[in-house]
Amino acid sequence: MARTNATDASASGAARTNPTHSNGTGASSPGASSPGRNGTGASSPGARRPRTGVNRTRPSRRRPAHSSASEARGASRWVVLAVLVLLALYAVGPLWWLLVAATKNRPDLYSTNGLWFADFNLFENLGALLTYQDGIFTRWLWNTVVYSGLGSIGLTAVALAAGYGLAKYSYRGKGFTMALIIGSFLIPGSLLIVPTFLLFTRIGLYDTIWAMILPGMFGSFSVYLAKVYAEGAVPGELIDAARIDGAGEYRIFLSIGSRLLSTAGATIFLLHFVASWNTFMWPLVFLKGAEKWPVMLGLYSWLQRGTDSQYDLTGLVITGALVSTIPMVLLMVSMQRYWRSGVTIGSLK
């Protein structure tokens, strides 16, 4: 009996300390209440809410999409700028070396830093250049101006007339003509040297200035360039209005078409002048006498001779190369308002 009373007492004490003690089935008793709550199930004012197993973390702040995009654009700009700076150094570097080397005498040319100045001897080098072989360099320079100028003027006139006709007139076989013009782009110019040499030898043009001027007056690429530009620059309504007023086809081209094609003409002239100024293979084959050589072939002949007893021909070649670039620079500066817009021929209509 005493043992039974002790067991009942311990069970009643456990019930006081753990009100949510389950019954025999393991379920909570109906009358049990959760800790910290009163009989109605409401939280007591001073009770602390129990921690649950859910890990609550503060949401991370994401960077806006526009900021990352702007950073990417900024990085790409720096990459583009670095590439442009490297290309500019690659283009200007040889010209800077040529300018520095032209101011040096023979010992400084081989013993000092090639990218910086030493003793200034530019005027002495110019004097030696203009007096060597009775001033033949000035003769070469004049020949180059004549060959390049006359050939470029003739090519510009022929290309503008042909391009205008292809753009504004319709005739049978026009598509075949355009196919021949475009197909001629694939023929290298070196393949035409031997047949042209045989032709000029037969008709008596070998070793004459016409062997340099006449071939340069015809170029398929220039004709195609003028044709593309004329399609957008010369309105058909303007030509029809001129015909109604009684103007002939030649007058329409000379008074209207040629003026509207001035930008294309300047671009064609400039491109051919630069190519003709730097030509080497053509005069090497077709010109025999040194008095008729252009400046590039003449400087090459000096470079092949090396040095003689009085002058260092290497220094003369460097100084002559510097002088020969001056006309090209002047031409580019004087015609920049034309070629800036002319390089986009056909891109906009």
Automatic annotation (TrEMBL):
Q: Name one Pfam family in it.
A: BPD_transp_1
Q: Which InterPro entries match?
A: MetI-like, MetI-like_sf
Q: Where is this region: Disordered?
A: 1-69
Topological category with respect to the lipid bilayer: Multi-pass membrane protein
Q: Where does it reside?
A: Cell membrane
Keyword field = Cell membrane, Membrane, Transmembrane, Transmembrane helix, Transport
List each copy of the ABC transmembrane type-1 domain by range. Answer: 141-335
Q: Where is the composition biased (Polar residues)?
A: 1-21
Residue ranges annotated as transmembrane are 78-99, 145-167, 179-203, 209-230, 251-275, 313-333
Major place of localization? membrane
- What residue spans carry the Low complexity bias annotation? 22-37
Q: Which family does it belong to?
A: Belongs to the binding-protein-dependent transport system permease family.
User: What's the protein called, per UniProt?
Assistant: ABC transporter permease subunit
Organism, by scientific name, is Myceligenerans indicum
